[in-house]
Structures are given as C-alpha cells and as structure tokens.
C-alpha cells in the first residue's frame, strides 16, 4: 500500500499537553505525531454532520425526480431534445 504524503505543520503545545502526549506515545509505542494525528482524527469524527462543509453541496442539483439515478440518460436526452 502506498503511504500518503503528510503535510508538515508546527504547533505549540501547553506543557501539560506535551507531558500527556509524551506519556501516551511512550505507553503505546507510537510517535507523538501519531498520537496528535489520532486526536485530530477523533475530533473531526466527533463533529456533528450538519456542520460538515462537504454536506453543503448535497442537493445542489435536486430535480425532484425520485428515479434520477436509474433514468439519468432518459432525462438528459429529453432536456437536449427540448432545447432544439
């Protein structure tokens, strides 16, 4: 499996945060960076779906038709024929 490229970022931790992350890293055998990435992933996963910006694009092309996935070709043909 190809490893994804990670983006380097510099952050400043509070001393207590650094201590906790160091203890977690040592206890789990993971790097501090891996612990921080895991925390960020957990935080993102905990966000309410209604605040997910990716959901803003849903229904942008809502047609009101219930069978658009099955009959998309038919609908496209009828649209092009009505414009001629």
Primary descriptors:
84 residues, 3 helices, 0% strand, mainly alpha, single chain
SSE blueprint:
Elements: H1 15-28, H2 32-46, H3 68-82
The unreliable regions are: none
How many strands, which pairing sense, and closed or not: the largest β-sheet?
none
The succession of helices and strands, N to C, reads: HHH
- Distance, first to last CA: 50 Å
**Class by alpha and beta content:** mainly alpha
Give the helix proportion (percent range): 40-55%
- Beta fraction of the residues? under 5%
Give the number of DSSP strands.
0
For the CA atoms, what is the radius of gyration? 24 Å
**Mean of residue pLDDT values:** 82
SS element count, helices: 3
Overall outline = elongated
Please give a structural write-up:
The protein is an all-alpha fold. It has a domain at 11-48. It contains three helices and no strands. The protein has helices spanning 15-28, 32-46, 68-82. Helix 1 crosses helix 2 (32-46). The longest helix has 15 residues, at 32-46. The protein is elongated, with a radius of gyration of 24 Å. The termini are far apart.
